[in-house]
Amino acid sequence: MSYLKFDKNLLINLDQSLPKEMLRTNRAGAYHCTTLIGCNTRKQHGLLVMPIEAMENKSHVLLSSLDETVIQHGAPFNLGIHRYKGGVYSPAGHKYVREFDCENVPRMTYRVGGVILTKEKIFISEENRILIRYTLVDAHSATTLRFKPFLAFREVNHLCVENNAINRSIESVSNGISTCLYDGFPRLFMQFSRKATWVDEPNWYKDIEYVKDLERGVPYCEDLWVPGYFEVPIKKGETLIFSAGISEVKPRTLTKMYENEIAVRTPRSSFYNCLKNSAKQFYIKRGKGAYLISGFPWGVVLARNTFMALPGLTLAIDHRADFEAIMDTALKALLHYADTGETSQEIKGIEHPDIPLWALWAIQQYAKVVGIEEARSRYLAAVAHIIDYILRGGHPNLFVDAHSGMLSTDGHLHAVSWMNSTLGDEPVVRRTGKLVEFNALWYNALCFAATLTESSAEFESRREVWTNEASKMKQPFVDTFLNEAGYLYDFVDGAYAEPSVRPNMAIAIGLDYSPLDRRQRKGVLDVVTRELLTPKGLRTLSPKSYGYRPNYLGSPEERDFAMHNGPARPWLIGFYADAYLRIFGVSGVGYIDRLLIGFEDEMTQGCIGSFSQLYDGNPPYTGRGAVSHATNVAEVLRMYRTLKRFDVNH
Q: Which residues does 253 contact at the CB level (< 8 Å), separation at least 6?
């Protein structure tokens, strides 16, 4: 039985099936995302969505959807489904659905009278092309399939309206057509593995609604262009492959292309395999560089998310080569910024003050998995460069106090940490001065760097400096952040200490090297467990703290305000688990193992096989935001890998 399988009773119930989404990506940055039954509920949904280099590599929806119709005895049975203005669903193709499973590839099974038809989708790994394979499992009379493409040709966060600017021309290609609605876009080639008849029937399909956008309080209604339809006769037992891409393909190669892709897929047959597949969906290549997308469907390449997610998305699934390729690309951008002050066009946010700290943490995870000697050989020069860059005050917004050795940053006007939601240009959570995770990461980095250079005579003098800096800040860290209630202030700015209970203290106690002793760390852990822990990660703010907003709902402004003031983040569980196991050792393994159950339950919710960007801070902990988020997948995977080191059976 498939690990991810959904039956007719769930699928025909729109209240249950529409909230469940599926995502497929390739390493070229393209994706396909929709609901299980194929009804697009977000403007970012689409059958072929891809970045366009000439348009700042922003993702664009080319092919929104493809409606299939089964024709027997002249009677059409449309398998598609769209939501139109006023909440009207038409056609009602979901009533023909019998089963959806997602072990090797997403496969939908339809039944129309005596017709049983399956549909399977797969992306080509490093090419912007999606393939759909149709198999007529059973039919008692002559059957024809009709395919109606819904075209958008727009940026993912925009909407299309009926206009006279579109290019209506269609060009015939082998077993299909090509078209391009607007100048500057690539041509879209739609082809079949065997001869298909094209029928011109141009029309605008107006007032298609996206219910998720309606709920989010953003524009949600658009018109899509349908230039006509394909028809292909098919017999019982036959298969037919549809291809949509930005280059022409030889139809006779489609079957082999499909088989080659499916042969290298990891079956989604377990919790771990689902996470492994999800992890690889964030990998992309651009030119000679390797990158991580921060999330789908509206993610970009972000420096902070790259370094935070990199160990979990690669090392935790034994993809060392991918870690090295992505790290090499990201380190090049970071060191270039450190030397010149020039930011990266490809990796956004390289200038933020915590980026060097997260880069050092990621390298430390590499050393733990691959070995200190390998890490020393590959990354010692970069680690030394970054440490010295921070110590000499090279970063324009990261300052080392000469007396205490502590780090401070100016966050009055700009968001400087991962809690980066804004209202207008103003940070919602104004964190400034000495931030708790900045200083914990800094202490940890100094200790790690000293360890990395232990057998290097060349770095002996610098190692002594780094060791002294770590020793210098150890007690000031405790005096600055640890309060009488036993937890850590979130930040301290001059005489002001922020008392809100936030999860950044979990990072501080989860690192390999901590200024806190075991008793102090346990006290902090108790507060985190009591006030922040949920089945979906750690809350961004305690319910007991002022301003707690657990639900990520409402207008864009309301959601921006709530984002870091209550909703839970799964990625923080990685540091929580590290802290718990460091304090309790083997006796804590059972407890951490049980925490994974809450995450495994999520594999059949939201975006199946992955984790949403955030979850409401109160029951039922509903997933919100991006349907699949890199740091969340990464840290749950790293937590899983940590448990394996304790010889837990998974």
A: none
47 within 8 A of 130, measured Cβ to Cβ: yes
Ranges of the chain whose pLDDT falls below 70: 1, 647-650
pLDDT at 92: 94
**Hey, what amino acid is at 248?**
E
How far is residue 441 from each of residues 362, 397, 518, measured CA to CA in Å? 11, 16, 18
pTM metric for this prediction: 0.95
CA Rg, the chain, in Å? 26
Query: What was the pLDDT predicted at 648?
Result: 46
Q: Which H or E run contains 408?
A: strand 407-408
Q: Is 40 helix (H, G, I), strand (E, B) or coil?
A: coil
CB atoms within 10 A of CB 187: 16
Q: Is the peptide bond before 556 cis (omega within 30 degrees of 0)?
A: no
* CA diameter of the chain: 87
Sign (positive or negative) of CA dihedral 51, 52, 54, 55: negative
Each residue of 200-254: pLDDT tens digit? 999 999 999 999 999 999 999 999 999 999 999 999 999 999 999 999 999 999 9
Length of the chain: 650
Beta-ladder partners of 269: none
In order, the DSSP letters of 604-632 are GSSBTTS--SEE-SSTT--EESSSEEHHH
CA distance linking residue 357 with residue 58, whole number of Å: 28
Between CA 131 and CA 139 the distance in angstroms is 23
Predicted pLDDT of residue 104: 85
What's the rounded Cα separation, in Å, for the pair 283 and 579? 29
Question: What local confidence, expressed as pLDDT, does residue 650 receive?
Answer: 40
**pLDDT for 647:** 58
Question: Sign of the CA dihedral 644, 27, 39, 198?
Answer: negative
E strands, 79-123, in order:
82-84, 88-90, 97-101, 107-112, 115-123
